[in-house]
Amino acid sequence: MAAETKQTCYEGSSVDSFQFYLQQSGEHEAMLQCVQNILPGEMKRTGADRSSLDVLGVGSGGGEMDVQMLSLLQSAFPAVPITADIVEGSSKLVDNFKALVAKTPNLQTVPFTWHVMHSGDYERQVKAKGDAKKFDFIHMIQMIYYVDDLADTIKFYHSLLKSNGRLMIIIETRNGGWDTLWKTYHKDLCVYAITEYRSSGEVIACLKSLGLKYEEHAVPNAFDITKCFDPNSQTGVRLLNFMTARDQFYQSFTPEIRAGILDLLRNKCSTEKDGKVLFNSTLSCIFVHA
What is the DSSP code (8-state) at residue 4? Predict the structure, then answer.
């Protein structure tokens, strides 16, 4: 299929690496707690008289967050029909998403439209057709790193919002552990799927330059990376592989770079508590107004 020629980074072995990271980091649980606290109230404030609720997920992965958010919206708007459009470049993750939907009884009434393509390809397709579907809620969770042009991407998806809609972007926070790691070792890390690392700092600057109104909410999170400092630990190696976007951390970098990354992870990206090294993986949840 032509739409699948340009994949997101999570295809093949990287899908397993991503799923392993999610298990270790508790990232989805942290995001979900924030979304549960904010999303229903945000959508109710912007229009309780909706006749439909059209949702677009961009870079939705295996759908773990989408299923929870759609269920939240169903609870908040029990009488309103919901539709879901999903843009995801990984065919394997889309299959995982479909399997998750099949196991979720309350979502059987929600019609899903699957766009198995990169967000940039979806943008080109919509522009070519000219008659774009508009949405009440668009979410871009941990995917803004992979787009070619940040301002153009935000501008395009913002243009798909209905008049009272919201665009939600979740991304690593500025000056957090990820931001420190990837900006310190930019030259060594930004060479494959991610060629320009972005945190909430870049997104907020972009929103300001576009004159868009937004609110930013912190999503506190930290996870244990103590095993990363034991080269014999398979868990530690797998985390390092994911955190540096490599298949083999120890074979991918020179001894000097490896030592520098490990030192940075321990001393600049983390805190130590009860003998554990806890990586600062705090996120930002940004709600952009239509």
Answer: G
The strand pairing partners of 205, in sequence order, are none
Q: Beta 214-219 vs 161-172: how paired, if at all?
A: unpaired
Tokens of 214: 């937004």
Task: Write the single-letter amino acid at 76.
Answer: A
What pLDDT, on a 0 to 100 scale, did the predictor assign at position 24? 87
Please report which helix (H) or strand (E) contains residue 91, including its range. Answer: helix 91-102
Predicted pLDDT at 10: 53
Q: Is the pLDDT of residue 289 over 80?
A: yes
Of 234, 210, 229, 217, the closest CA to residue 283 belongs to 217
Tokens of 219: 């999503």
Per DSSP bridges, beta strands 135-141 and 112-115 are: unpaired
Separation between Cα atoms, residue 31 and residue 29, nearest integer Å? 5
22, pLDDT greater than 90: no
**DSSP code for 181:** H
Q: Quick check: helix, strand or coil at residue 27?
A: helix
CB 173 within 8 A of CB 202: no
The sign of the CA dihedral 1, 69, 212, 283 is negative
Angle at 58 between CA 56 and CA 63, to 5 degrees: 85
